[in-house]
Amino acid sequence: MNLTYTPEEEDFRARLREWLGKVLPTLPAKPSPDDWPGRRAYDLGWQRTLYDAGYADVHWDASPTVRLIFLEETEKAGAPYVGANFVGLLHAGPTIAAEGTPAQRERWLPPILRGEEAWCQGFSEPDAGSDLASLRTRARRDGDHYLVSGSKIWTSHAEAADWCELLVRTDPRAPRHGGITWLAMPMDAPGVTVRPLRTLAGSAEFAEVFLDDVPVPVANRVGEENDGWRVTMVTLSFERGTAFVGEVVACRRVLGELAREARSNGRWDDPALRRRLGRLNADFLALWRLTQWNVSEAQATGGVPGVGGSVFKLRYSHARQELYDAAADVLGPDALDLGRPWTLDRLSSLSYTIAAGTSQIQRNIVAERILGLPKGR
Amino acid sequence: MRFQLTEDQRALRDGVRQLLARRFDADALRAAVRRPGRLDRALWRELGAAGFFALRLPEADGGVGLGLPEAVLAFEEAGRALLPGPLLATHLAAGAVPGAADGSVVVAAAGGGGTVEWLAEADVVRGDATGAVELRSVDPLTPLHRLPRGSGSAAADERAAARVPGPYTSPTGVPDASAAVLLTAAEQLGSAVRTCELAVQHARTREQFGRPIGAFQAVQHLCAGMLVRVEVARVAVYAAAVTADPVDVAAARLLADEAAVRGARDCLQVHGGMGFTWEAEVHLHLKRAWVRTHRTGGATESEEMLADALTAGTR
Ligand SMILES: Cc1cc2nc3c(=O)[nH]c(=O)nc-3n(C[C@H](O)[C@H](O)[C@H](O)COP(=O)(O)OP(=O)(O)OC[C@H]3O[C@@H](n4cnc5c(N)ncnc54)[C@H](O)[C@@H]3O)c2cc1C
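Above: query sequence and flavin-adenine dinucleotide SMILES. Below: predicted holo structure tokens.
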């Protein structure tokens, strides 16, 4: 067991740190949360900056350790969040890289890396959330196209996306998991309607997407027809496996800020609060160690992240909520002020135990797939 | 960075596990419970011969010359097997107290948590145990003495240091106090691993309503919670063993205490009425886990240290 990095890795870290120090002060101001064209331009612009500096492909081509260093350093330096690039960079991209044909990789991967195209994820439906395999959006074959009809919901960043990783049912008679197909759908195709939904944090972070005989070329199918469930499992393992690394670093930074705020506003004198922050420090330290452990494992096995991601996600999503609850205690009445960033973060942390698989579903996965308990009911 | 067990570390862990399975199996555990307060000296010498106590002693001093990570793996196995005796005190005394390293001498230690484990069976006592009063120990496998109020503090340790054989820092440069907290956390981790295993085994086999109880989500979720706490504690303990940083050690302690105590409680719950019996192994894990949470100062100390580290800006 060791926690030291190789000289090459340390060198990568030093160069990245130096570059971030130079480039971050030159970035334009962040657009407001409801300015979707502005947010899209900002997020994609940051990706382009990374691309031009040679850092864009770190998500797919670099070793897991280098990726870890990249996420750690960019987050520590306060670089922009992936934002509208989340799905493209962190799961559609890796899925196409793993499962796509050479032509598909050539078509979709470079524009993601260059910050030219954003993706969203069209998995959930009004009647298929936790029970994703019950999805009903239909795709019927019409020559060299599929015609897709149905609706998707909770589609994050749908308004900013060019492409959607879409799950459709291609064989309604097949067993539930057997009739699903994974498609790349252009968001500007005829028949696509996006209706923004307002989140409890007040912004339009996700949307409902209505699909009315939308033509999608058969060539846009990743994997075989009716083999989409397997491809989806690859996608979800990326979503649960590596997507949270930067956020753990961010939470550790916030915890330090909280302690300093408490020192300056006098709340630090409360021993109960101090102990609570101390415990949260232990939690996030351990979550960081778990990240390093999982990355080392991925490095050793060279494969797709394993079910261990569920262990991480469970602890992390609850710790994140406790972190911002503690922030409210530090802030006192200011915790009721939407102008304080921590208040918005506290609201958005409420989604962490729901999005990307609820805590209940993650526990089912841990019980059945890691502990080998009998199939639940 | 390769934060995974090396081949050698795996081999060491498996070796300790096999030794304990052979010499301290379920029957031996029951027998020990029937003779509370008595230490198996033959087993103690075997542990000494296997290098359990001399693990971190430099080879030049007749030790095995390994580090904290290896000691942590050995103590995890000890915790898993519920191995009784003043393992920690004797391990920390290797190199300072003649005979501790090879298991021919049993060492107890006073100081830290206000109690002394295994005082009556010890050949050598480190620290000041004057005025210690025997308790009716909650853990049938850990005899306890209560120290008079005010002793066990740094000042008392200072005074006592003059009267004990050997220094209070281990030969490997890691302060004993830090190593004591970490190795205790390792034992807690092992205990949590075991109670999780026991719960899962029981949930797979015990049937109610015509199916294994492990098919019920309420039971599944208890077990999943246990595993999550185990894995989080595991990485915290292993990382602290690698860095030997007191802040990492404090974090390891909090997470391992949580994993052990809550794990034992949940394991008991999964066992139902059977879990409440003297016969089931679960209560022994819970009681030992409680004893360990009092060892080497309390959780508050660790929480305060972690809080301080936040404003120091180092973490
Ligand atoms: C902020 C946010 C962003 C999202 N972004 C996207 C996105 O971009 N693309 C996308 O496709 N989806 C997205 N989602 C959807 C998300 O994946 C689903 O909300 C989630 O899987 C839960 O599904 P549901 O909302 O239908 O809830 P339900 O499945 O109806 O669950 C309701 C409650 O029942 C519980 N429950 C359900 N089934 C079980 C069971 N078997 N055992 C125990 N408890 C159960 C759940 O845990 C939950 O507490 C997003 C969600 C949020 C909150």
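The pocket of flavin-adenine dinucleotide is lined by residues A 120-124, 129-130, 154-156, 206, 351, 354-358, 360-361, 364; B 217 (CB under 6 Å).
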